[in-house]
Amino acid sequence: MGLLTEASVIENKDAFQTLHHQNKSNWIELGKLNININPALNTSHEKAAFKLAYEYAAKSRENIPEKERLAIAAAMWNLSTKRVKEEYDINKRAGAVFAIFGEEIKEQLNQLQFTEFTVVGTHRDASEHQGKVWKGETVPIRIELAPSYIDSSSQGRWLIAEGKKLGMLSPSDAQMSVGAITFGRASLNAKAKITSEASSGVIITTARGNVIEVNKLKSGAFADVDWSKQNYHATVTISVQPSRNPQKPDIGVAIIKDKRLGELKPESFEKLTAVLKAHNIPVQGYTVEGNITASPPSAAKVVIDASTIEYPQSWNQVQQSEFSENKLLLAQQIQANRTLEIAPIIHAFLSTQDKTTVVGKLNTVSWNPQTQEITLWTNGSSSPKMRVKYFDGEYQALPIGDIAEEIAANGLSEVDVQHFQQIAPSIYARIAGNQSIKADNNMENNY
Question: Domain extents for the chain?
Answer without folding.
Answer: 43-110, 116-198+300-318, 217-292, 326-446
